[in-house]
Amino acid sequence: MSYGPGELTPSPVTVDAAVGRINEAIWHGFDRCRGLLSVSELGDVVLVLLYLRGRPAWQALVSGASDAEQALRSDLSADRESPALLRPLLDSVRKADDMRQLAPLVEVVNRLDPDGQAPPAQVFSAVLERVGGLTTRKGTGEFHTPRAITELSAGLLDPTGDDQILDPCCKAGGFLTAIVDRLMRQGKALDRLAVTISDYSLRSCALAYLQLRLRGLTPQVLPSVVDSLPTGAADNEYDVVTANPPFNLPNWIGDDRFRGRWWYGSPPAHNSNFAWLQYVIASLKPGGRAAVVMPYGAGLSENTQERNIRAAMLDDGVVSAVIALPGQMFAGTDIPVTLWLLQRSPTPRPAEVLFIDANELGSIQQRRRTLGPTDIDRIVDAYRDWREHSLDPVAGFVAAVPIEKLRSDGYRLNPRAYIPSINEAPDLRTRAREVGELTRRLDQLAEQAAHIDRTIEEHLKELSL
Question: Which of 27, 185, 247, 270 could make an SS bond with 295 (beta carbons 3.0 to 4.6 A apart)?
Answer without folding.
Answer: 247
